[in-house]
């Protein structure tokens, strides 16, 4: 039988607005205990938005953790309590690209860094695009630039090492497989079982209520 990695104790080390860090004591095969640090996260969504010419939207945003600007998909954190993933994706597409879409499907679900973080991301594909009013950006997003790139060129940039954001890599390659007839999108009604719940449960328990951005 597979081993049951039971958590015997847990300590919250850091509790920040969009992530937290805890240390769990976990039972190991053979009866020993080991500690594991886990970065908690609210989860996120991203969007491969493709127009009728086969181009997708890429944004370039400064990421302080790596000290450089990265080419990425429009994306955002699931930081509104109980907000459906699709609603969050629509909001982020409007806020980051000034776009709305008529047709939506699920491309891939992924866990970005399972060795130490619980962040999980649902990547959508959106078509039938139209321009909508874009709200004023703040912080790093105020410095964000936008580029329309043919999907095939975006795939080539992935293999050339020019697009390195893991979410963008997964979304672009999945979208290219769909357009090439080698894959298919899933229904947006499919549950996102990987969506993290640790931070949301703890904040509800202490009465934080709304988990909107700070």
UniProtKB/TrEMBL annotation:
Domain Nudix hydrolase: 39-171
GO biological process: nucleoside phosphate metabolic process; ribose phosphate metabolic process
Region Disordered, annotated ranges: 187-214
InterPro entries the record matches: NUDIX_hydrolase-like_dom_sf (IPR015797), NUDIX_hydrolase_dom (IPR000086)
Name of one Pfam family that matches: NUDIX
GO MF annotations in UniProt: hydrolase activity
Keyword Hydrolase: yes
Compositional bias annotation for Basic and acidic residues: 205-214
Any one cellular-component term (Gene Ontology): cytosol
Keywords, comma-separated and alphabetical: Hydrolase
Keyword check for Iron: no
PANTHER family given in the database record: ADP-RIBOSE PYROPHOSPHATASE (PTHR11839:SF31), UDP/ADP-SUGAR PYROPHOSPHATASE (PTHR11839)
Name of protein: ADP-ribose pyrophosphatase
């Amino acid at each position: 039988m597979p081993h049951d990695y039971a958590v015997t104790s847990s300590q919250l080390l850091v509790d920040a607005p969009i992530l937290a860090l805890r240390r769990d004591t976990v039972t190991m095969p053979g009866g020993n205990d080991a500690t594991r640090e886990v970065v908690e996260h609210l989860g996120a969504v991203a969007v491969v938005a493709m127009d009728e010419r086969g181009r997708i939207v890429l944004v370039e945003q400064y990421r302080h953790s790596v000290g450089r600007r990265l080419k990425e998909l429009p994306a955002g954190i699931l930081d509104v309590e109980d907000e459906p993933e699709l609603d969050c994706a629509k909001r982020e597409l409007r806020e980051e690209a000034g776009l709305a879409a008529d047709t939506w499907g699920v491309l891939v679900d992924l866990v970005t860094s399972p060795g130490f973080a619980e962040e999980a991301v649902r990547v959508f594909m959106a078509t039938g695009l139209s321009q909508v009013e874009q709200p004023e950006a703040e912080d790093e997003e105020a410095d964000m630039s936008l580029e329309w790139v043919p999907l095939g060129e975006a795939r080539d940039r992935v293999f050339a090492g020019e697009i390195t954001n893991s979410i963008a890599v997964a979304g672009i390659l999945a979208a290219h497989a769909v357009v090439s007839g080698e894959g298919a999108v899933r229904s947006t009604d499919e549950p996102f079982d990987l969506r993290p719940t640790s931070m949301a449960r703890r904040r509800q328990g202490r009465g934080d209520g709304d988990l909107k951005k700070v």
